[in-house]
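Lab meeting, action items carried over

1. Structure of the two-component assembly. Owner: GW. Status: complete.
Input record:
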Amino acid sequence: MSTVTTAAPGRSAAPAGAVRSWKTPILLAVLAVVALLVFGAGAPRNNVTFRLSDPNDAIVLPDLVLPAAATGWLTAVVLAALAVLAVLAVRRGAGVPVWLVAVFAVLFLIGFLTWVIGSANNPNVALYGLLAGSVTLAVPLIFGSLSGVLSERSGVVNIAIEGQLLFGAFAAAVAASVSGSAIVGLFAAALAGVIVSFLLAVFSIRYIVNQVIVGVVLNVLVSGLTGFLFSSVLSKDAETWNSPPRLPVLSIPVLSEIPILGPILFEQTIVGYLMYIAVAVIYVALFRSRWGLRTRAVGEHPKAADTLGVNVNRMRFINVLLAGVVAGVGGSFFTLVSVSGFGRDMTAGQGYIALAALIFGRWNPIGAFFAALLFGFATNLSNVLSLLGTPVPDQFLRMLPYVVTVFAVAGLVGRSRAPGASGIPYVKG
Amino acid sequence: MGAPGAGTDNASLRTEQIGWVVKLELKGITKRFGSLVANDHIDLVVEPGQVHSLLGENGAGKSTLMNVLYGLYQPTEGTILVNDKPVTFSGPGEAMASGIGMVHQHFMLVPVFTVAENVALGNESVGAGGLLNLSETRTRIRQISDQYGFDVDPDAIVEDLPVGVQQRVEIIKALVRDAEVLILDEPTAVLTPKETDELLGIMGQLKADGKSIVFISHKLREVKAVSDVITVIRRGKVVGTAEPGASTTELASLMVGRSVSLTLQKAPAAPGEVTFSVRDLTVRAANGQHVVDGLSFDIAKGEILAIAGVQGNGQTELTEAIMGLQEHVSGSITLDGEELLGRSVRDVIKEGVGFVPEDRSVEGLVGTFSVAENLILNRYDEAPFARGLTMRPAVIEKNAQEKIAEYDVRTQSASAAAGTLSGGNQQKVVMAREFSRPLKLFIASQPTRGVDVGSIEFLHKRIVAERDGGTPVMIVSTELDEVLELADRIAVLYRGRLMGIVPADTSRDVLGLMMAGMHADEALAQATELQGGDQ
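Predicted assembly:
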């Protein structure tokens, strides 16, 4: 850097002397080496069959049959080439382009799938089922992270997602059992989420208690309360209290017959459809509506909003309650869709994974949607693989979603920027 | 969500006023916070088409008064009259509805929003389906921007804009809401001299359009330049009004309450050998930008080098790099031939470097510790304050009594929490601590920011005394007045680079050009050319 060129030393001049981040290219290079050694050299000598559609479907796609060794080598070589490109990009002083990371991830996934399924006792997998199952497993995560989006965009950290999901699941089970209607259960779930949210809002906004602490306390409270009621009431007379009817799957005619995408988009329960609607509505509302502009303002710079006559704490309160509705509905998935009936601590930390999806998705509804899908996919893959009987031990497979979470949040795709005032209570003056 | 949700009274008042001018009157405004009286029966009349300056020291109660006027605080007593009708503002929305707009000292802009989003916020027009419609706002912004020559792009992201432009966005925000009275709270604090001149020009234009302006400042020169009426506030009370023609000394003594000498008496510097050298110092921020970019300079024994520049041009990083508080530093920093770079902060301090950080309440003091404890923060583990593993309270107390007397620190006792002291007294504690041991280098960042004029005099004298004692001194200040007052030589920083080192008698114009990014020789040439043109 010479000091001679002083013509326009603005922000644009920075890249020449930028701190080069070798993190991404190094990681890509390591993964490429793994691919060469495992997918290529360690490839099984048989063919892998991916079934693309159910034989009973209206339109049946032919099975995709790939030779494991050839596919493994091909993906590994392309991965290595991409890693070299990434190294060159950083040496030039430019960052690693996002498309490169995305292509790399997809290819690595293909290589991994071919290798792991090829090594299974039965190298044959229903790809359509794998994908549809991922979406199903992702439903509560998506609701959870949307709840986080609503709350954190307005400046309140929502650690209580876990508690909202669990209380929603519990309320849905009980209300649906007692009334005999799954729809009643759905409304009860939303209400239960709001109750948890209300406590979060009162303590964090009104009484300015540390938001993270309130959230954690609420999670423990809900876990203890539902656990107590489960053992003292629900399991004593499961017939009355814990046998909710399940929500029916509503297939949309014709559309649900589309190969692969049909079951994902058009063969869902009400909760599944609500999930898609919620993602779209929250996205549009957040970035295009008056409510969204104020929500974001209150979460970024509350004092600026206040000086323009926006009631900061009321905006926040409303948003936290809305977040409760969303997470509560997500909770109903556990007892009305997934299994019929409540079980102690059945959300099993999904609320925290949803929090990770929120961060990985950069506090954006659509980003959170895809991040949650990724975690859903990792979970489902570990389920499917343990059924197929792969050489990888079961315990390792079950770690997969969490390993993906850690790597994703650790910032593979650049730095994620939280709303400026998230977690900071607003006090006038 | 009740944005321009004015009470019905104010709303009807507003409709009467459209196209009219607003006369604003404050009668007996008192604002108490517990036992503290921030405003004590203040009367003020702002006539339409007037620039009315509120002059007072930091903490005199100017900002509190304006927050009352803007509806952010409720007055304890007193009334606000708009066009002779009493009004109450329960929030800024209602103040805006009555034609009052405010540009805050710390901008109230959402950094990640566009200009249009910031302007629309709280006053959004909504189209079909509840979706935002910003096109109207964009048109208004362009219109106002053209009218006053603001050159603001409605779709720019605010955080990418220079500070001066951000301030114009704030003004646009007020004008879009039909403000007739504009409150400008310390608007020049963050501007370069050139930007300041432009702002003063804009104020003139607004005035010509019949708007009235309340200009809050403690900078006498600017107040004299633009005001029609000057009201001076001290300790929450109006202590007098003055004509803009009044002399600076008159205004200063009115503001402080006693006669002050505004010019520091100091002997010419007698620089000795150079003991402190910085070479090619570069500091990189996390995003890779060079926030300090290839700086080289020397300071000799017994001279003061002042680092001038608008806030945020690398001054903080420079001082922190010297103290060992920054990562990603390259180059060399030597003191008496010893390399300081790469040493720990404690090492640097033990080497004999005294440091007054820019934010004393966060970095200079531990607010909850007593004055006595704060006075030994740099030597608490040494004799005579410590013996073995124990501290010696009696010695610490005695030291505190001595320093409190020597520096005239106004505190209830040595055991009072440092955070309860006024800004000036806090700064005296910091300085007393740093000067309490022999120094080989003294660095002070914003030594008198937020300090009352009386204390400024004292602190400046103390710094000059340190220089006369043969210590190399480096002062970082964004206040040009302070730089000109103290400096033996002036170095100007712009975007982390040195625009040159010039003698202390360099003119404000030249320094202003340098602060805006022009090299010393160019700036000198341009300034002389301009003067030639005048003659």
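2. GW to write a short summary for the group page. Key points so far: Chain B touches chain A through 50 residues (CB under 8 Å). The longest strand of chain B covers residues 36-46.
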